[in-house]
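pipeline stage [seq->struct] | target=DUF1127 domain-containing protein | organism=Mesorhizobium tamadayense | residues=60
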Amino acid sequence: MSILSSIGRVATQYAAARARYRSERILHSLPDELRKDIGFPEILDTRSSRREATFSTKVI
């Protein structure tokens, strides 16, 4: 693996993370009623519970 491919992979991951956070900021700016209609709070709850489960299994 060359250093250029490593830099490209890191840049791709960074761009994906920025897009994800930008989308979350936009969704958080919507009114509560609209977020409930599209199911946004449940998406965050599922993601955080999955993260906690992953971290707890790795720690043990």
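stage status: PASS
auto-comment: The chain has one domain: 3-59. The longest helix spans residues 3-29.
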